[in-house]
Amino acid sequence: MNCETCHLNELELEPREIKDVLRCILHTIFFHRTLTLVRPKDVDCERFQITYVQCGLPDLEKEVDEKINQFIAWAEKHPNRRSQVCLSFFDEKNKHPGWFSNKTERIYWEQWFINLHVISPKGHGKQHSSKAQTNITGEASEQASSRHDALGSLIQEVLFQIINYANEKKDHIPPISDRIFNHEISIPR
Amino acid sequence: MSGMSDSGAGGRAGAELMAEQFHLKVLHAVLAVRAPRPLAAAQAAAASASFRRRDRWFHLPLHDPPPPPEAELLEAPPPGEPLVVDIHLAPAGSGGAGGEVVERWTVACEPWPDAAASAAGEGMAVNRAYKRCITLLRSVYSTLRLLPAYRVFRLLCANQSYNYEMGYRVGSFAVPFSRAEEAAMRSHRFLPVETQPGRLVVSVQYLSSLTAFNLEISSLSPSMLITNYVGSPAAEPMRAFPASLTEATGSAFPQSYQQQRPHSWAPPALWPQPPMQQMRFSPPPLHYASPTPSPPTFSGGYLRSPLRGESAPVTIPGERRSPVHRQNMLDPIKGLMLPPPSPRRGEKGAAGSQESPSEISRSFGRAEGLRMVDPYGSSSPGSKVKDSKDESGRFSALSSCDSPRQDDLDDADYPFAVDDVDPPFSRPGSSDGKEAGDQAGSSSHKSQDAAVGSLVHLLRTARPLRDSSYSSQTAGVESSEVASASSVMSRRTSDALEELQSFKAIRERLLSGSRAKERESPEKP
């Protein structure tokens, strides 16, 4: 079975935005790939004024948040770097089927690569002049606002990218089971 | 559903059933987030309820929010006919007239074009098609929340006092867009799902920007009317206005309202298209009433949707105490004893009798700004935003539009009808005219206005020349009426003479008082 891959558009964001961005993206992917009975839950992302949908599965939410926190910790140690968070769906099969063999292998059938560029927020400089400080603060806040607005638009583009891809590539999805597909969220090390 | 048979007639029937349910599911999903209504109660009920069997179709129960109740009455279109759902915005209270379609969802099962394709379709496994339908519906569900109309839906759910209403039309036919409309709309067609009867296709046309609809809150809802405003009969007329309220009207709109401006929300190019405009909200001017909705019915043609807007129109009073009332106080001919205007918000030392429109709009805008909750303002991870602020009258920003005259008449009973005036005379028509004269004499130190006011009060409280109490005594007895008519006449005359004498005394006192004042005035610096 071929593994379908989808590389999402890169997003440039600050550390404080990581949680909201990754929640939006990961949950949207899960919502499209969790074909069991779900209890859809609308979640408002206040920061970017986006409403995305979760599956309403508490365990999944907990898992996603844990992985996001791990990524945030990694990003703090590796500032200003491009990175990827990968969400993979796989099947597990016995590697050597037999009575005494427990080895299983993962056969990935889909991978989503979330490309992020975490940047440190721009400092306010070392200016000692109060007037210069005020000017720089004003310009910085304008830049931050426009950057924030642009990021919101880019996030929506990424969400639509997920919607498009999820609909275009459906043949490789395994049969529906009574639980969500096996998956793993990989973060850089 | 997941175990539908793929074989033979059972497969065909299953596929047709699936196609029918697919149409309904899309319809319900669209209406759930495009038919504004108070959602809190519906969501609470739906969240706690278990899913019905039919809700489990495509493993996507619509519970948060659930579709409007009238959606249950809608039936799927006949096989071969498309389902078209138009979402439109119309001025509030217009009943849909003058509305503009902002979104059009079309669901259709396109028959196979030829026999070969049909034969290929017949081999389509129902389970496989069902799985694809699940994914397609997930996409429709997500897309519904990313399009511009969703934002309007949330706003209208939170506050139904906007100047626009969102409604829907369901049918199997839709009026084609004009060229201009077509040019303004974006469109997207989801990847079809192949089934035995045909290909299930979902497409959407939408306006990428709703800035042309200047959504504004038109007025306070009835629940926000304050009856115990300062100056009302229910309140103390002379209660000082709280300083906190006067200080709080510094800015036109609070920060929360500012944050609601969706300048960062502009929907991106859904599918590669030019950048979209942004929605803009501005202060509220007016409120439009709207009719009570009626449930729609599906009859193959256009179906009118309920246009919701359940709050009654409320006119904001432009003024409470107009200068004409002060004039009436000076003019005894008017016969009204009117109190001075109560202190108004925004007045700073001025004895203004009128609240300026800017004061009104600012205080109103502030109230509405805080009421107009940002749909994203109170969310927390994993929780749905619920707006309950529109249910409480939170601000005493404005008063009702009671007639000022009535208030003034009521206030006339209070002992401070005018500035620096003594309590009104108890019975100016009493037999003791000297008491009246003494009281009038004590008013020599009052202003001339106060003196005239007291005179007017006397006139008002004086016994009428034709006392109804006397006539009531003789009512129904003609002979006794005639017999006592002369005595009544003489008594009335004596009363009138007494009053005239007392008035003369008052007049003398007033004149002497004014002369004394005139003598004193040159001595003042």
Automatic annotation (TrEMBL), chain A:
The keyword Phosphoprotein does not apply. GO terms for biological process: autophagy. Coiled coil: none annotated. Residues 124-143 are annotated as: Disordered. Residues 130-143 have a biased composition (Polar residues). Keywords: Autophagy. InterPro entries: ATG101. It comes from the Eukaryota. Belongs to the ATG101 family. PANTHER family: AUTOPHAGY-RELATED PROTEIN 101 (PTHR13292). This is Autophagy-related protein 101. It comes from Brachypodium distachyon (Purple false brome).
From TrEMBL, chain B:
Residues 279-496 are annotated as: Disordered. GO terms for biological process: mitophagy; piecemeal microautophagy of the nucleus; protein localization to phagophore assembly site. The keyword Mitochondrion does not apply. One of its GO terms (cellular component) is Atg1/ULK1 kinase complex. InterPro entries: ATG13, Atg13_N, HORMA_dom_sf. It comes from the Eukaryota. Residues 384-393 have a biased composition (Basic and acidic residues). One of its GO terms (molecular function) is protein kinase regulator activity. Keywords: Autophagy. The keyword Cytoplasm does not apply. Residues 101-208 form the Autophagy-related protein 13 N-terminal domain. Residues 477-488 have a biased composition (Low complexity). Residues 282-296 have a biased composition (Pro residues). It holds the Pfam family ATG13. This is Autophagy-related protein 13 N-terminal domain-containing protein. It comes from Brachypodium distachyon (Purple false brome).
